[in-house]
Amino acid sequence: MKSNKTTIHDISKALNIDSSTVSRALNNSPRVSEKTRKKIRQKALELGYQRNSLASNLRTNKTHTIGVIVPRISRNFFATVIAGIEETAYEAGYNVVICQSLESLERETKFMDTLLSNRVDGVLISISMETTSYEHLLAFKQHGGPIVFYDRPCHIENCTSVSIDDFQASYNATKHLIEQGCKHIAHFSGPQEIELYKNRKKGFITALEDHNLLYKEAYCFESGLSSNDGIEIAKKIVKLKQIDGIYSANDTAAISAMQYLKSKGIQIPNDIAVVGFNNDPISAVIEPGLTTVNQPDFEMGNIAATELIKQIQNKTANSEKDSIILSSELIVRNSSNK
Amino acid sequence: MKSNKTTIHDISKALNIDSSTVSRALNNSPRVSEKTRKKIRQKALELGYQRNSLASNLRTNKTHTIGVIVPRISRNFFATVIAGIEETAYEAGYNVVICQSLESLERETKFMDTLLSNRVDGVLISISMETTSYEHLLAFKQHGGPIVFYDRPCHIENCTSVSIDDFQASYNATKHLIEQGCKHIAHFSGPQEIELYKNRKKGFITALEDHNLLYKEAYCFESGLSSNDGIEIAKKIVKLKQIDGIYSANDTAAISAMQYLKSKGIQIPNDIAVVGFNNDPISAVIEPGLTTVNQPDFEMGNIAATELIKQIQNKTANSEKDSIILSSELIVRNSSNK
DNA sequence: ACAAAAAATACAATCGATTGTATTTTAAAT
DNA sequence: ATTTAAAATACAATCGATTGTATTTTTTGT
After folding, report:
1. Which of A80, A85, A272, B97 would bridge with A297, disulfide CB 3.0–4.6 Å?
2. B235 has pLDDT over 60
3. Is the pLDDT of residue A317 over 60?
4. Domain range spanning residue B185?
5. Count: domains in chain B
6. Is a pLDDT exceeding 50 seen at residue B2?
């Protein structure tokens, strides 16, 4: 069953011009005279010709498409990074295929496979919370193309990571709580296999130590940092009865915890001060406003995409830089303003 | 420059078996004996073979990919719809390509073009606020495949729209404000070329009329319903000094308006009651909680994708149904609880 | 053991575009 | 007018997989 779409051969036949010339004309090759180029363009329009990218990509071995793997598209931070990626890609003439890992390694692996099959030119990825082995990434790197990590750095040979300095941001956030007078600070952390969460935790611990506060493992709660996780941890914190500060590695968990604490009559920031991470839009709306770390999300997308495209076009596919560090800032609101 | 990737021909040569047999083996065709199938599978694994989907898709004229055009990915409602689409597509073995129109007709048109070039099997689209002409959609419908509209219905021949009953939802929301005692209700509306906003406005007006309230054109504010638009309109409303209720066609504008009004010392809901649309997560966190219309967002994605895939596979590409209407509900919170 | 049927595999065309090389046409130079 | 160079176009192979048809091999029945 033949597809009804117009091909260069249809144009070729209609004008009695070889299809190679038609192809060149449509690609503005200087090898075609202005006169025939016009004729071909005209006929193409007339027949409603639309290039078949599959054929073109097969032949040229390029798709001008980049794959993006994101843990969850509905997180504002990621949605904004994607918007940044998209902007840069669009301007550079690249298409973007977005895949949600939903924090599942299995899905992530399948998507890397599909992206490889579809011969995307490169991949931008923020690894899932389950990702502790890297074969699927290495496989792509070997047979596919460059990979650039964003937000969650990952040290694979010849791959660049674009992120903020999580250690430092975390250190500053914790220091801020200490300066507000908090003595017993809890930390909401993510899976320790993920470097980002390890770094945030390290920053937290180091800040405590530098200010002569004791770090207690019992005050560090590791979870997936979902809304539900925030509530569950908040429950435990209420029972502990000693916590006077919370530093959460993301806003999602911080916000649900805040809501739970408020519902239990706990005063924020007076009883417990709270600091989050990501500057989610909700953090500015909740009362009291949530102090949080603002990351250059949109810009992170721009930069990661720019770096990837550079690597794609250099064809060396080897990154000079292991990591690109963007600056972040602590936005102080009332949730920590004792 | 040859790509270094393994092809069926490499496997074919390595085993001295024809490539057609290799292809069939890898596709589990019954025409290949179990013995050689195993041998081929084994060798494929050994050589790190990865099917080239470009070639396959070119030959079969199917991509198992659906295009999704979304106004803005960072709006929670859309992000959730996409998650729903993605879930269904993933289960059915379809890939999803997501494109952000950013409410621009130009971008939307370019994307439809690209999707057509890339031969996606079908498209799910929520048209941009600028989309008042449909040539780009008709072109895809003619040469491409089925189109299913979600959220923002669009009546093109043989296309299905999946949405809620905006008129009714709007009617109920307005009725609710009236029942709370509001007499001078303002409406934040979107571009009237978009059926969705027209319907929401109609529902608003009809509810007023049914309750013997005068509809004033001056109380209806048309905009892009962005955060900024909400603030600008709120400013005007403060100047009017008569408004005692706001019904906004989305939460984004309602929320920023609420914040502006609060900053001006206006009491919500006592001075002005507010109702929004979409049940954005922020609406549950802002104080007072924003009364809003909850749409089955995730489910809408599921259903739209299911319908599209059905049409793709039926190959008739003709929809039986012009529209699929999902039910919505008004979530009453304190912003309208006088 | 042999013909017929069934199973397994090989051959070859094809999807639609790109591109190196060959050929023809046009223009420039003598 | 004729040679030469340059410009324009045609030819043909190719990208990697799929698939209808042909051929070979194996199995079955008698």
Report:
1. A80
2. yes
3. no
4. 166-295+330-336
5. 3
6. no
